[in-house]
Amino acid sequence: MRPLIVAALLALSTLFTPTANADTELYQLSFENTEQQPVSLSQFKGKIVLLNFWATWCPPCVKEMPTMERLRQHFTGQPFEIVAINAGEPGAKVDTFLAEMKSKGHPLTFPVLLDEKGRSFREFGLRGLPMSFIFGKDGELIETIGGGVEWDSAANISKIEGLLKN
């Protein structure tokens, strides 16, 4: 019985192990914003980038949005940006979500982009949502984080401060 449990746990852990394809070039990617205008991630060159993939139907995704906004506000004026990419939902659904967040006193000021076709699951090796990637100022992947995060925690603020110093 134990080998079966161990095998099941290993299977689950590989299912949710966050990975990014090594050949994904951050600055070569482009997604549309909610106004259907293309946004190239090359505009974030020279910044630490927290790239977050999320969906409106994902409770941990929704829960971490205000903490990402507070993190962004903490680093206003510094070379740091948060980019949230909605994975697999139509723009109208995302617009409704953003309006609801604003009406609840949680307007999001960081870029929210769309991946309506869900190509990021393939390009970034997403195996679940939310999933986040931290990229250095040079566009190199520093860290991959699966699951919901309290982004404005002291530990995460300290982590970003350390990256900004380098």
The biggest beta sheet reads: 7 strands, mixed
Helix proportion range: 25-40%
Count of DSSP H/I helices: 5
CATH topology: Glutaredoxin
User: What's the gyration radius in Å?
Assistant: 16 Å
| Parts with pLDDT < 50 across at least 5 consecutive residues | 1-23
Encode the helix/strand succession as letters.
Answer: HEEEHEHEHEEH
Shape, please?
Answer: globular
What integer is the average pLDDT?
A: 87
Report strand order across the widest sheet.
2-1-5-4-3-6-7
Number of strands: 7
- End-to-end Cα distance, whole Å, is 50 Å
Specify the CATH homologous superfamily: Glutaredoxin
Beta-strand fraction estimate: 15-25%
Structural class: alpha/beta
Specify the CATH architecture.
3-Layer(aba) Sandwich
Please describe what this structure looks like.
This protein is of the alpha/beta class and 166 residues long. The chain has a single domain (18-165), classed as Glutaredoxin (3-Layer(aba) Sandwich). 36% of the residues lie in helices and 22% in strands. The chain has five helices and seven strands; from the N terminus they run αβββαβαβαββα. It has a seven-stranded mixed beta sheet with strand order 2-1-5-4-3-6-7, with helices on one face. Residues 1-23 have low confidence and may be disordered.
